[in-house]
From TrEMBL:
Keywords: Amino-acid biosynthesis, Cytoplasm, Isomerase, Lysine biosynthesis. InterPro entries: DAP_epimerase_DapF. The lineage of its organism: Archaea, Methanobacteriati, Methanobacteriota, Stenosarchaea group, Halobacteria. Its main location: cytoplasm. Pfam families: DAP_epimerase. Homodimer. This is Diaminopimelate epimerase. One of its GO terms (biological process) is lysine biosynthetic process via diaminopimelate. The record marks 173, 221 as: Could be important to modulate the pK values of the two catalytic cysteine residues. Its EC number is 5.1.1.7. Pathway: Amino-acid biosynthesis; L-lysine biosynthesis via DAP pathway; DL-2,6-diaminopimelate from LL-2,6-diaminopimelate: step 1/1. It comes from Natronosalvus rutilus.
């Protein structure tokens, strides 16, 4: 026997990387099924994943436990833009300007970076104009931590015909620097790398090209199994790989995916991801409750 229940969601995006946010207090028996159905851009609401967020507001700063369920039904240990959206969600609920986010990749500090108001926005919109920063930890090139099957760090090596540098920024990323990200068929070059035997858990695949002082970004995401408008861990991966290859100096690196502009700031080797987050709209989706008891 089964019954339907309405589940409230809030839709957020960070530079176009979009998520349904569901309060983890809401009982959703089949999170995988809900994500597969509702992330579909034709049959469902459409999103790059569902963030189930459990707020613990008795702490100061408040804590949030973040679980990202992706459209393929799997969970990811970390999501940079998801964490920025989770940060905004918790800040809206608590009024706090900083929160701690518990992810499978570790606890991350998120905080509001106030807008200087120079875009002429009125007071009411000021909060939405503020950017959200998340401290992302230290990117690692250690093969075992990525994981990638190699004895030494994979730096500018060919995997499935693409010259990549491989780094973990909470999740695995392969980064290829190319002349022009738009001149490459991302899907065609990324899929073989995404599924290469070198990566026991698979990998996300990024293309980057130099633009001005920063980089343009295109990312093929594991779990979405397609290109997304932005990827935060991918932006950090591009910045970390660029520093390692001597393509960037300075502590602040701008990375621009199709959905907007991100900034990656290094303090030593520790990276912070900064960018806009928007609360788009709210709605209801249906979930199915199954019961084995049939009177
Ligand atoms: N969009 C995310 C990354 C989400 C996880 C990734 N698809 C994976 O499975 O590793 C981001 O902003 O970092």
């Amino acid at each position: 026997m089964s019954a339907f229940a309405d589940v409230h969601f809030e839709k957020y995006h960070g530079t176009g990387n979009d998520f349904l946010v569901i309060d983890a207090e809401t009982y959703v028996p089949d999170r995988r099924g809900l994500a597969a159905r509702e992330c579909d851009r034709e049959a469902g609401v459409g999103a790059d994943g569902i963030l189930f967020l459990a707020l613990e507001d008795r702490y100061n700063p408040p804590r949030v436990i973040m679980t990202l369920v992706q459209p393929d039904g799997g969970t990811a240990p970390m999501c940079g833009n998801g964490a920025r959206c989770a940060g905004r969600w918790a800040m809206e609920r608590t009024g706090s300007d900083e929160v701690m986010i518990d992810t499978q990749a570790g606890t991350r500090h998120a905080y509001r970076v106030e807008s200087d108001g120079s875009n002429g926005s009125g007071e009411e919109d000021q909060d939405q104009d503020d950017r959200i920063a998340v401290e992302m930890g230290e990117p690692t090139f250690d093969p075992k931590s990525i994981p990638v099957l190699a004895d030494d760090p994979v730096v500018e090596e060919s995997i499935e015909g693409l010259e990549v540098t491989v780094v973990n920024t909470g999740v695995p990323h392969a980064v290829a620097f190319v002349e022009d990200v738009d001149a490459v068929n991302l899907e065609a070059v990324a899929k073989p790398v995404r599924h290469a035997e070198d990566f026991p858990l698979g990998t996300n695949v990024n293309l980057a090209s130099v633009e001005g002082d920063g980089f343009r970004q295109r990312t093929f995401e594991r779990g979405v199994e397609g290109e997304t408008d932005a990827c935060g861990t991918g932006a950090v991966a591009i910045a970390a790989a660029a520093r390692r290859l001597g393509l960037a100096d300075g502590d602040s690196i701008s990375v621009s995916p199709p959905g907007g502009d991100l900034e990656v700031v290094f303090d030593g080797d520790t990276a912070t991801l900064i960018g806009p987050v928007e609360h788009e709209f709210d709605g209801e989706v249906q979930t199915t409750h199954f019961s084995s008891f049939d009177p």
